[in-house]
Design a protein that fits this description.
It contains 12 helices and 11 strands. The radius of gyration is 24 Å and the shape is globular. By secondary structure, the protein is an alpha/beta fold. The protein has helices at about 5, 25-30, 35-45, 65-80, 90-95, 135-145, 160-175, 200-220, 220-230, 260-270, 295-305, 325-335, and strands at about 15-20, 50-55, 55-60, 125, 130, 150-155, 180-185, 235-240, 250-255, 275-280, 310-315. It folds into 2 domains: about 10-95, Ribosomal Protein S8, Chain: A, domain 1 (2-Layer Sandwich), CATH 3.30.1370.10; about 110-335, 3-Layer(aba) Sandwich (Rossmann fold).
Length: about 350
């Protein structure tokens, strides 16, 4: 008699099986992914087992994880039914959001810009793609950008602060809610001295602005971006160029705001005109200002906290949506600093 017969493996009492049926076999193939890699990702993240049986998936595991996996699988299948694709990032987003995006009650009436929040799921529609917040913090941030005239997004790199802000700006522009988008950031070198750069003013500052161009090109066709830049519907400029302007009917983003001085931050905040929205994003741990110079972001956070119409949204390493290793790197640095 073998050892397994004498000592059969113990199975936790709450480990059970939930059977999910998916009628369209073609969509089910897309749900499972090549070599079942989508199912493997869900299994790894939620510590459950998924077994395919014809056009059914058996989810095996403890109650809470089994329920969450079932919600995730149904949500991903609904994406495929709507003609959307399922990528690793979409799976990660569904797991992070849990079932909170699907059980919010439907409200009636209200601001048309905020209708996207009434059903739980949030989708920012641009010309090239639909952008969805992937964490609860991102969802709250997007809602704050639509609901308030001035919003701050503060947190580590890779949490989508700037990307989501630009997506909201593009959505509001093509929806006719604003007349233009203005994107700015301080032209501060990250710990290096590059010396004098060749070319005209645009060629000198464009390297600092490249992340903003990258985000725009993700949401709009390249030719349309170029046309809007030429027609000044979209402006990308260093923070120093903002002095003396009044920005009306515009969606304005200040990126890398931790590198703005106190004077620059006050100057920028007072540019806000009628019908405009302003977003300030930054990471307090990556200040590149000369030693001894205070960050305008930290000062604004202290002074404007509690001011009506101003909202602050914070992100942590748990909201990082880049490579998973980025989150672990940020957590390691936070522990070292603590």
């Amino acid at each position: 008699m073998g050892i397994s017969a004498l000592h059969p493996p113990t199975v936790p009492e709450d480990v059970q099986e939930t059977l999910l049926e998916f009628p369209d076999n073609r969509l089910l193939i897309g749900l499972c992914g090549e070599f079942d890699r989508n199912l493997a990702q869900i299994e790894h993240r939620l510590a459950i087992q998924i077994v395919r049986r014809g056009n059914q998936l058996a989810v095996i595991g403890p109650g809470a994880a089994r329920t969450q996996a079932s919600v995730v699988l149904r949500a991903l299948y609904a994406r495929l039914e709507a003609g959307r694709t399922v990528e690793a990032g979409d799976i990660d987003a569904e797991i992070r959001m849990g079932d909170s995006m699907f059980d919010a009650p439907k409200a009636e009436g209200g601001d048309s810009q905020l209708e996207m929040f009434q059903g739980g799921r949030v989708e920012i529609r641009t010309r090239k793609k639909i952008v969805e917040p992937r964490t609860e913090a991102q969802k709250a941030y997007v809602k704050a950008l639509y609901a308030n005239e001035l919003g701050f997004g503060i947190g580590p790199a890779g949490t989508g602060k700037t990307y989501l802000a630009v997506a909201v700006g593009v959505s509001m522009l093509i929806g006719g809610h604003v007349d233009k988008i203005l994107l700015s950031r301080p032209a501060v070198e990250a710990g290096e001295r590059l010396g004098f750069l060749p070319g005209d003013m645009k060629e000198k500052v464009d390297p600092y602005m490249q992340p903003l161009y990258d985000a725009l090109n993700d949401f709009l066709p390249a030719k349309q971006v170029q046309k809007m830049l030429e027609e000044k519907q979209i402006e990308i400029a260093p923070l120093a160029f903002m002095r003396g302007r009044t920005l009306s009917n515009a969606f304005v983003v200040l990126d890398e705001a931790q590198n703005a001085t106190s004077m620059q931050m006050k100057m920028f905040l007072t540019r806000l005109g009628e019908g405009s929205r302003m977003v300030i994003t930054g990471d307090r741990t990556q200040v590149d200002l000369p030693r001894g110079m205070a960050s305008g972001l930290a000062e604004a956070e202290r002074i404007l906290n509690g001011v009506k119409g101003v909202t602050f949204n914070y992100f942590t390493s748990k909201d990082v949506v880049r490579h998973p290793l980025v989150a672990r790197i940020i957590e390691a640095y936070e522990k070292a600093e603590a």
